[in-house]
Structure to design on (162 residues):
């Protein structure tokens, strides 16, 4: 599978037990079940589907329940399955995802085809930027926000000042 050197360490895509996952320094950054596959959304797509195998992303669905017609800001892309799962379950929602590492975004886009699908629909926007800089210059407003940023180290400290 795909392996690249990212800003914070090696980024690798792997499949195991019917799940495709994206790893940074061998830490899972998101994973999706292969069945149902992406073809459940668009029959021309091949690859993992819209259902995350990362249980914590199911908590994000609560934001969609509260704002099903809303717009969201997500800090940290990882595999993008969290964003895909939200967009799949809430067809009137749109998301902007800020990712600091262009290699992470490239690997996710190549490995999880539903990201491109939602970008092409105009419902998903991926911004390559430092989240602190992006948020400091933010003129837009969002209904909900999700922070899942990982710098590849042993600390899981998140952005909290915004």
């Amino acid at each position: 599978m795909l392996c690249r050197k990212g800003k914070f360490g090696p980024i690798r895509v792997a499949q195991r037990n019917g799940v495709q996952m994206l790893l940074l320094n061998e830490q899972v950054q998101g994973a999706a079940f292969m069945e149902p596959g992406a073809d459940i959304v668009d029959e021309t797509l091949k690859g993992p589907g819209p259902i995350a195998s990362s249980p914590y992303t199911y908590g994000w669905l609560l934001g969609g329940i509260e704002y099903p017609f809303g717009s969201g800001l997500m800090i940290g892309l990882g595999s993008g399955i969290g964003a895909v799962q939200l967009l799949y379950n809430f067809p009137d929602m749109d998301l902007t995802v800020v990712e600091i590492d262009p290699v992470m975004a490239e690997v996710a886009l190549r490995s999880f085809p539903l990201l491109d699908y939602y970008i092409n629909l105009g419902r998903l926007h991926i911004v390559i930027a430092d989240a602190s800089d992006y948020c400091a210059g933010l003129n837009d407003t969002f209904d909900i926000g999700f922070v899942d940023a990982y710098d590849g180290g042993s600390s899981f400290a998140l952005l909290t000042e915004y």
User: Anything to note?
Assistant: Strands lie at 3-6, 9-16, 19-24, 27-33, 71-75, 94-99, 124-128, 144-147. Helices lie at 61-66, 81-89, 102-111, 114-120, 131-136. The longest strand covers residues 9-16.
